[in-house]
Amino acid sequence: MQVSENHQRYWQKNLRITAILLAIWFFVTYVIGFFARDLNFTFFGWPFSFWVASQGSLVVYVVIIWFYARYMNKLDQEHGVAEEE
Question: Nearest to residue 38, comparing CAs of 52, 21, 18, 23?
Fold first, then answer.
């Protein structure tokens, strides 16, 4: 089965953005969480490291989801595979 060049470009862009966003997710989840233990001051009555790990990462996750959905909608339209609304 031959895959068109358009289809190959679509999947290359899809895999590239997925890899980038997963790298950001990994960094926020594990790297920042690991080094947040060194931030020893209180923030609104909670240790700042707790706030970073629980609240800051959730904001980043929502931004990642929003960006991926927006990017994929534009990519779908660019390659002619968008759903009709």
Answer: 52
pTM metric for this prediction: 0.80
DSSP readout, 8-65? HHHHHHHHHHHHHHHHHHHIIIIIIHHHGGG--SEETTEEHHHHIIIIIHHHHHHHHH
Q: How many CB atoms within 10 Å of residue 72?
A: 15
Compute the distance between CA of residue 62 and CA of residue 21 in angstroms, rounded to an integer.
12
Taking residues 6-25, what's their average pLDDT? Answer: 95
| CA 13/CA 56 separation, integer angstroms | 28
Question: Which residue matches tokens 């923030």?
Answer: 43
Q: What distance in Å separates the CA atoms of residue 78 and residue 85, rounded to the nearest whole number? A: 16
* Residue 82: both structure tokens together: 């968008």
- Can you read off the two tokens belonging to residue 80? 């002619």
